[in-house]
Design a protein that fits this description.
globular; pyruvate-formate lyase- activating enzyme; single chain; 3 domains; alpha/beta; binds 5'-deoxyadenosine; 35% helix; six-stranded parallel sheet; disordered N terminus; five-stranded mixed beta barrel; 19 strands; Rossmann fold; binds iron/sulfur cluster; OB fold (Dihydrolipoamide Acetyltransferase, E2P)
């Protein structure tokens, strides 16, 4: 039952749905959700809600959920349980669920948890104030999870405190339909923002003090702007037509990473950071085919070789799934050797988790949970053995670090190297937003320690 009405227009127009009341948003999952939460807070602040740090202080609680694996979905349900108890004590409290679980479950959520006041989908964030207004008007069981298939993707970045480094959405949705992945169902069809909108957006962020942007999308390198503009063109434009100092992007699909994009990164290496998150998911070609990834092990390794040749000092990270249906021990070993051959300093590895609507969830030969756990542990062990040695070569090197924040009490600075490593060193708050040279004294796989030069 889709239940959005027009009669709340007047309420929305008075910009005072919140009447100063507190709003708390609990966020799960990926960077896309983090950005969506910022958008929700910004929209609700415009309606005179006040963001609060603790759910106990809120009159409106929103869960921005994730359904990429089963675990975060469980977390959402357990949090709903906690908030239900709060609502029992305070019946005027409103509770809404958005994000990927909202999109996926729609009315089922309210059927299972009748204390939820409203559910909204990933394409309905801009209509959130209206939904909230209806809820405070006393309407119940509100659901709006429509996809705006025809609407162009026009959004301006809404981040309350962008700081030094921030994320800018450039695409939404995904049309790749990897057989394990729920995202094409929860985020809808792939759409790109117009190039000029992105440039204007970034210029505004630069005026607010932003030095680094990460261009964000499920699959950024299939970006299609107006007049055949592709992702490489976009990258070049951001580098040459805005004053942003550093550009990153995530996530890339190996099948769409071509020589032109690598050349563009190299041509603008003063601004485009030499770090690429390039998920390979499995090191075995048969499994990759069953995953519908559209590349073989060899093709992936060729891409890595091409990128290493084109972009000096390029750093890779990757996503990996172990225990995909039918994966044998030998096929899993191909994943282990792929980590070693690729020389990944950072990996994000997950046990395969069957997701609703997806093809792989229906595949026979699902792998036992214990086998998945064992493979994941062995993969992390193999990576640990290699990664500590791999990063040793950075010790003694000088890196350019953009300072993001300072722990004022201890004078400890946190910044990022061009290769996206967190670097800690001692310094003063005036360095925030500046790029400084730091000599690395100790290198761990995920974080470096150093001294300001
Ligand atoms: N099970 C386990 N991991 C998954 N991912 C996506 N779907 C699943 C799933 N069903 C992982 C992929 C993706 C990352 C964001 O999450 O590795 O790159
Ligand atoms: Fe999911 Fe594949 Fe799309 Fe990534 S490319 S969001 S893994 S379907």
């Amino acid at each position: 039952m889709e239940n959005t009405s027009q009669n709340t227009e007047s309420l929305q127009q008075n910009n005072d749905i919140g009447q100063g009341r507190g709003v708390y948003i609990s966020t799960y999952g990926c960077q896309m959700n983090v950005n969506d939460t910022e958008r929700m807070y910004s929209l609700l602040e415009m309606q005179n809600f006040t963001p609060v740090e603790k759910p106990e202080d809120a009159s409106l609680i929103i869960i921005n959920s994730c359904s990429v694996r089963e675990k975060p979905v469980h977390k959402v349900y357990s949090e709903v349980g906690t908030f239900r108890k709060m609502k029992e004590k305070n019946p005027s409290l409103k509770i809404g669920v958005g994000g990927c679980v909202g999109q996926q479950e729609k009315e089922n959520l309210i059927k299972n948890q009748p204390m939820i006041d409203f559910v909204f989908g990933t394409d309905q964030i801009d209509n959130l104030p209206q939904l909230v207004a209806q809820s405070f008007e006393g309407e119940k069981r509100l659901i709006n999870a429509k996809f705006e298939h025809r609407a162009p993707y026009h959004i301006e970045t809404m981040v309350r405190n962008p700081g030094v480094a921030t994320f800018v959405n450039i695409t939404k949705g995904c049309d790749n339909f990897c057989t394990f992945c729920v995202v094409p169902y929860t985020r809808g069809r792939e759409k790109s923002r117009p190039l000029q909108h992105i440039l204007t957006d970034i210029r505004h962020l630069v005026k607010r003090g932003v030095k680094e942007v990460t261009l964000l999308g499920q699959n950024v390198n299939s970006y299609k702007g107006e007049e055949d503009i592709d992702f490489a063109d976009l990258l070049a434009k951001v580098a040459t037509e805005t004053d942003v100092e550093r550009i990153r992007f995530t996530t890339s699909h190996p099948k769409d990473f071509n020589q032109k994009l690598a050349d563009t990164m190299a041509a603008h290496q003063n601004k485009v950071m030499e770090y690429i998150h390039l998920p390979f998911q499995s090191g075995n070609t048969r499994i990759l085919e069953k995953m519908n990834r559209n590349y073989t092990r060899e093709q992936y390794l060729e891409k890595i070789a091409m990128l290493k040749k084109t972009i000096p000092n390029v750093v890779f990270s990757t996503d990996i799934i172990v225990g995909f249906p039918g994966e044998t021990e030998e096929e899993f070993q191909d994943t282990v050797t792929m980590v070693q051959e690729g020389g990944f300093e950072t990996i994000f590895a997950f046990k395969y988790s069957p997701r609703p609507f997806t093809k792989a969830a229906k595949f026979e030969e699902q792998v036992d949970e214990e086998v998945k756990t064992d493979r994941l542990n062995r993969l992390f062990d193999a990576h640990d053995k290699m990664a500590f040695d791999l990063v040793k070569r950075y010790e003694g090197q000088t890196m350019q670090v953009l300072v993001e924040n300072v722990d004022r009490e201890h004078g400890k600075i946190q910044g990022r190297s061009t290769g996206n490593k967190l670097v800690h060193f001692l310094g003063t708050p005036d360095l925030i937003g500046k790029t400084v040279n730091v000599k690395i004294t100790k290198a761990f796989p995920a974080v470096f320690r150093g001294e300001l030069i």
